[in-house]
Design a protein that fits this description.
About 40% of the residues lie in helices and about 20% in strands. It contains six helices and nine strands, in the order ββββααβαβββαααβ. The longest helix is centred in the middle third of the chain and has 19 residues. The chain is elongated. It is α/β, with parallel strands linked by helices. The chain has two domains: about 70 residues, no CATH class; about 100 residues, Metalloproteases ("zincins"), catalytic domain (Zincin-like), CATH 3.30.2010.10.
Length: about 180
């Protein structure tokens, strides 16, 4: 550790790593899937103030850690097989709803279920294959709607709801799974 990093072990939480960050405008707590708790600390905030902040957020941190522990962890899938299956599903949805995309990539990603680039290239996580069919369809349609609307505005969610009613409910269901 150096003068910009500090580690404190809390009774209820365990080790918390505090890191000074020039770009941070506020205190921010993040909890990784590995249950590592990090606090981004603006330069002008003391470590003591950051520690007080963590203490005030202890119930939230404990709840978040328990939520992560209860998530279903998914194993990687063979990317070639996943691409064959997902491309077929994606193409069927495109035919059904008149969507177009440029290129499909399937990867074993650690942080995203999928993404859509400005050029309408869709990237999907191979672990999608472990999900229930309704969540697979939700992810595919989510990315396809991004070929038309490049953000998560109200217009995006309203459009997605045209294809999958109550899409935000499925988005919440998806959060029960861990990459």
């Amino acid at each position: 550790m150096n003068r910009f990093t500090k580690s404190i072990t809390f009774f209820d939480i365990g080790e918390v790593i505090f890191k000074k960050n020039k770009k941070a405008s506020r205190l921010r707590i993040s909890i990784k899937n590995t249950l590592e708790v990090n606090v981004s600390v603006p330069i002008y905030v003391t470590f003591n103030k950051a520690e007080e902040f963590v203490i005030s957020k202890t119930p939230w941190i404990i709840k978040s850690i328990n939520d992560i522990k209860n998530k279903v962890k998914l194993n990687p899938v063979d990317k070639v097989k996943a691409k064959q299956v997902l491309k077929k599903k994606l193409d069927n949805i495109c035919d059904k709803y008149d969507f177009k995309y440029n290129k499909l990539t399937v990867r074993n990603q650690k942080t995203r279920w999928g993404s859509c680039s400005q050029k309408n290239n869709i990237s999907l996580n191979s672990k999608i294959m472990h999900l229930p069919e309704e969540l697979i369809e939700y992810i595919l349609l989510h990315e396809l709607v991004h070929t038309r609307i490049k953000n998560h505005s109200k217009q995006f969610w309203d459009t997605l709801d045209l294809y999958i009613p109550l899409s935000k409910k499925l988005d919440k269901k998806l959060k029960k799974y861990s990459l």
